Structure formats: C-alpha cells, structure tokens
C-alpha cells in the first residue's frame, strides 16, 4: 500500500467571515499527481493554503508526511523543508535586485535562523544542478524581475528542486502563460515529478491538462463535490454539478489543437489549448 | 559663501564636527541598511510616517520634562506597532491611512510645541536635525543599534528576502511572517528614533529611501545591493556634512542633496547600462 503524503480530514476554512471551504476530506498517496478543480471562488486557493498552514483553519485536521499540522500552521522544519509551494501570483514590484542563482539558493537553504555562512560549495552545486534540471542554466545571473513569464515558472521549479522534496503544491501555476509556455511548463513538471518522486497537488482551470497529466481529480465548490480519476470526475454530469448548470464542455479543433472551454453563468470562461496527441 | 580649504580642514578637526561626521557615517549606514529591506517591502512611506510622528514623541518628552530621546524610543516602537496593526486590520489603503496618521500627529506636535516657549524657536532643529549637537551618548546608542541591526538582518536574511518577494511563498518555507514583520517594524522604529536628532523628522525618510533606491537601480546581486545601500547612505551623509561645512549650509538638507545626487547618478548609470528599471519582462 502506497505511503500517504497528505491526509486532510473534515477541513473547514473561513475567509472574510464567510465559509470558503466546508468539511473537506481527502488523502494523497505518494508520487501521485492530483488536480483540484472548480469555478472561481470555489475555495481552491483557500484549501491549499490551509493545508500548508498559510492561513488559519476553523475545523478539521491536516497531516503532512505523517506529521500533524499545528493549529497555527506549525510544522517541524525537517518536514517543512520537504514541501514546496508555488503561489498563484508572483508579481515583483519594480526592479528586484535578486539574481536567479540567489533565488534558487533560497530554495536550497534549510528553514530557521542562518547564523553562519552556509555550506557554500554544496549550495553552489545544488543551485547549478537545480537550474540544469529546469533548463535554466543560462538564467543564473539574470535578475528575477527581468524574466519572462515562462522563464520565471521554470526558475520557480528550480527553487523547488534545489533540495529533495516529497510534496509540491501548485496554485494555478500556469496562470499568465501562453499556450506554448504552459505546455513547456507542464512537460517539465511531468518530467520532474517522475525523476524527483514528487507528490503533486495542483489547483488548475486547465481541464485538458488535468485529463492528460493527472492521476486523480478533486472537484471543489466550497465542499468536495466529486473525486476520482479524470475520466470519472470530469464527466459532463459531474462537471455540471461542480460548475453549474450552464457549464458547456466542448472540443474545438484548430491547427491540430484541441480546446476545452469551461463556461459558467457566474464565472469567467477558462480556456486551454494543448496538443491532441498527448491526451 | 564657501570656506577656504585650510579653514575647512581645521573645521573638520573640531571635536563636535568629528562627532557629527561619525554620526553621519553611522546613521547614514544604518538608514541605508534598513532602507534596503524597507524599500523592497514597500515600507518607504511607513518610515516617512514614523519620522513625522516622532515629533509627537519629542513633544511628549518636552511636556513631561524628560530627555526627549528617552521618551522617543519607546514612543516610536509603540507607535510603529500600533500603526502596523491599524494598517493590517483597516479596510482603507495603507498609504491613505498613513497619511492621516502622520499629518495628524505632526499637526498635534507642532501645535503643542508652539505653546512651549523654550521650544518655540527650536522647532527648526527638530524638523531638519542638529547633527552638530550629537553627543557621545547618542553616538554610542547609534553604534550599538547598528551592530544589533547587522546581526538581526544577517541571521534572518533568508526570511527577509522571501518576505520581500512574496509572503505566501515565505510562509510556505516556514517563515514566521507576523513575528518577522513586527520585529522589522520595531527595529525600523528604533533606527528612525535614534536618527531623528541628526537628520530631523522631515528628512529621516530620505536617509532610509534614497540610498536604497540608488543601490536598487544598479545592483544585480542581493548581497551587493544591501552593502551598496549602506555604503551610499554613509558616504552621502559624510559627503553632505563636508559640503555643509564647506559652504556653510544647513547639515540635514545638505546631506539629503548629496544623497539625491547619488540617486541621480545611479539613475543615469542604470539608463546607460541599458537595464530596465521597472517591471518584469513580459
């Protein structure tokens, strides 16, 4: 039986005094890729942030790598160091004087106070390795604030891969990327997941990508509406239940690309374009 | 009117001038050091509001009949914590709230000071600083704070950078964001409080913001950015004092003008180097 990396039990979260997540329970087995889908405002970001202890929870429990998450999000440093999180928005205000190599080094450094100089040689090697794994060696001396959207996402993955991790949590990692950059990002993520043995929990609006790469889908609309394999959880009746009655999944063929669009009365349309042959 | 070179040298050799130069070196370096992080964490206006509000603390000391410096440090720390909590919990934008707080506290302080006869003519010194009047006790306190600040920033450098980049990312890496924020605000308040005598309430934010902004424009590595900001702060302060002595100008504004020149030079350099000063690449 596969090891359980994340176990969430009866989790409830409130935001701005309103319930955002209600009584959600699920578990992630080791080295699986699970997508969290649902309309805007369904509580997906709140759920992943509460799971990591970034925001307070009002009820339930979370166990990460066998360790119970404290009421204020406390986790032993050794456990925290095995978890990586990519936030939904990573917007730098103006010129930020931090090189890519320095940023990736922050992903290597363990948590807690840093009194000494750190393990310089080991650190340098880890940074170079991480950048090479993410095809970003040429970016080492560039400023983080000078990167394009696609380069920044690769560097964020290098930040994650700079030290061994067990769990990677991504909150709409493909947001802001064009179709080609999103495709490259997911291919890299797919390869890294295999080589690094990561367990992934990712919030996504890209249902085509979810069908193609994920093992399991959790459908959230404040509470968990369905869970299962992509074929089961993304079937039209279940999608309609999650996104609302006006949800229309359709396939649009254009230049060897297939497109799935999710529309809902109360939410903005979401679109994605991915090569059909990998579906 | 300028002073002859020989006269300038003998002026710089005077004990009060040497104390002033040392105070400039220390407060300039301290301002640049804290400023390098404050600017990235978008706390520039917060430090400005702290500086302006410090006048209220000084007024409190004068009204109570105790040394204003003794009152100013705890006042600045408490004030910073209160304002920080207000900003965190208010539905108003932070800049609007800070504007209300600092203009109100400045007005209250000036009104109260105008009623104290002994200080009616001394407001100028409080507003623009009196670095020539810095004592050895002031210098010792500033030096101790500089050492404490360097240690604090060194030990928490990873947390400080991550918090400057993105708070959720920092939290996910185990950074105690709330405590780090409170601690940073306390240290910033102490830096502002101890630098007020030398720089004045109106110019203190320039000490914090200008060297950091200049360093930000030309640095491509974080470590060098912090060192450059501290160095520019110290060099600007010392250079400004020398200019002030040479041309018989008020010291605080002279220091700020030298720092402005440094900033303009950095701006020109960044333009010549072809770097993009604002925004991430698309």
Provide a descriptive summary of the structure in words.
The complex is a heterodimer of chains A (279) and B (282). With 279 residues, chain A is α/β, with parallel strands linked by helices. Chain A has two domains: 1-82 and 164-245, P-loop containing nucleotide triphosphate hydrolases (Rossmann fold, 3-Layer(aba) Sandwich); 97-163, no CATH class. Chain A is 30% helix and 30% strand. Chain A contains nine helices and 13 strands. Chain A has helices at residues 44-51, 77-80, 100-108, 120-133, 149-161, 179-196, 207-213, 230-233, 236-243; strands at residues 4-15, 18-29, 33-37, 59-64, 67-68, 83-86, 167-171, 199-203, 216-221, 223-228, 251-254, 257-264, 267-275. Chain A has a six-stranded mixed sheet with strand order 6-7-8-3-9-10, with helices on both faces. In chain A, strands 2-1-4-5 form a four-stranded antiparallel sheet, with helices on one face. In chain A, helix 3 runs parallel beside helix 5. By secondary structure, chain B is mostly helical. Chain B has a single domain (5-268), classed as Orthogonal Bundle (ABC transporter involved in vitamin B12 uptake, BtuC). Chain B is built from 13 helices and no strands. Chain B is globular and about 60 Å long. In chain B, 49% of the residues are buried. Residues 277-282 of chain B have low confidence and may be disordered. Classes of the chains: A alpha/beta (279), B mainly alpha (282). Chains A and B meet through strand 6, helix 3 and helix 5 of A and helix 8, helix 9, helix 11 and helix 12 of B.
β-sheet strand percentage of chain A:
25-35%
Instruction: Please work out how many helical segments of chain B DSSP would assign.
Output: 13
Reported by name, the CATH topology of the largest domain in chain A is Rossmann fold
What is the arithmetic mean of pLDDT of chain A? 83
Q: Descriptors for this entry?
A:
heterodimer, A: alpha/beta, Rossmann fold, 6-stranded mixed beta sheet, 4-stranded antiparallel beta sheet, 9 helices, 13 strands, 30% helix, globular, disordered C terminus, B: 282 residues, mainly alpha, ABC transporter involved in vitamin B12 uptake, BtuC
């Amino acid at each position: 039986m596969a090891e359980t990396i994340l176990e969430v039990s009866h989790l409830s979260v409130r935001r701005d005094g309103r319930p955002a997540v209600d009584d959600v329970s699920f578990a992630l087995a080791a080295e699986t890729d699970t997508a969290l889908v649902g309309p805007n405002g369904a509580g997906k970001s709140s759920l992943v942030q509460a799971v990591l202890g970034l925001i307070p929870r009002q009820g339930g429990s979370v166990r990460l790598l066998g360790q119970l998450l404290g009421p204020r999000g406390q986790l032993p440093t050794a456990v925290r160091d095995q978890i990586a999180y990519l936030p939904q928005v990573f917007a730098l205000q103006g010129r930020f004087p931090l090189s890519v190599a320095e940023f990736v080094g922050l992903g290597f450094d363990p948590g807690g106070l840093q009194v000494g100089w750190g393990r310089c040689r080991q650190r340098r090697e880890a940074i170079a390795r991480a950048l090479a794994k993410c095809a970003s060696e040429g970016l080492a001396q560039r400023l983080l604030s000078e990167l394009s959207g696609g380069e920044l996402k690769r560097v964020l993955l290098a930040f994650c891969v700079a030290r061994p991790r067990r769990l990677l949590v991504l909150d709409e990692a493909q947001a802001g990327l064009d179709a080609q950059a999103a495709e490259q990002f997911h291919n890299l993520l797919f390869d890294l997941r295999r080589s690094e043995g990561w367990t992934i929990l990712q919030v996504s609006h890209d249902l085509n990508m979810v069908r193609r790469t994920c093992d399991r889908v959790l459908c959230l609309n404040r509470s968990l509406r369905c869970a299962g394999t992509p074929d089961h959880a993304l079937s039209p009746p279940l999608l309609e239940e999650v996104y609302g009655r006006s949800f229309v999944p359709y396939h649009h063929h254009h230049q060897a690309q297939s497109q799935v669009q999710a529309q809902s009365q109360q939410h903005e349309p979401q679109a994605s374009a991915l090569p059909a042959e990998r579906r | 009117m300028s002073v002859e070179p020989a006269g300038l040298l003998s002026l710089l050799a005077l004990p009060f001038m040497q104390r002033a130069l040392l105070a400039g070196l220390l407060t300039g370096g301290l301002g640049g050091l804290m400023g390098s992080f404050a600017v990235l964490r978008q706390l520039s206006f917060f430090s400005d509001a702290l500086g302006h509000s410090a006048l209220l603390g000084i007024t409190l000391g004068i009204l109570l009949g105790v040394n204003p410096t003794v009152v100013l440090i705890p006042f600045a720390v408490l004030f910073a914590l209160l304002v920080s909590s207000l900003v965190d919990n208010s539905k108003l934008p932070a800049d609007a709230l800070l504007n209300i707080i600092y203009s109100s506290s400045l007005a209250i302080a000036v009104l109260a000071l105008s009623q104290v006869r002994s200080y009616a003519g001394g407001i100028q010194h409080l507003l623009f600083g009196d670095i020539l009047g810095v004592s050895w006790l002031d210098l010792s306190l500033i030096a101790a704070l500089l050492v404490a600040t360097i240690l604090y920033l060194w030990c928490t450098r990873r947390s400080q950078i991550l918090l400057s980049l993105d708070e959720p990312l920092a939290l996910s890496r185990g950074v105690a964001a709330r405590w780090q924020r409170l601690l940073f605000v306390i240290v910033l308040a102490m830096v502002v409080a101890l630098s007020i005598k030398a720089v004045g309430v109106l110019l203190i934010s320039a000490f914090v913001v200008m060297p950091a902004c200049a360093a930000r424009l030309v640095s491509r590595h974080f470590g060098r950015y912090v060192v450059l900001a501290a160095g520019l702060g110290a060099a600007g302060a010392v250079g400004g004092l020398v200019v002030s002595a040479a041309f018989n100008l008020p010291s605080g504004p002279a220091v700020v003008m030298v720092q402005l020149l440094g900033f303009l030079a950095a701006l020109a350099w960044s333009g010549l180097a072809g770097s993009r000063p604002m925004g991430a690449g698309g």
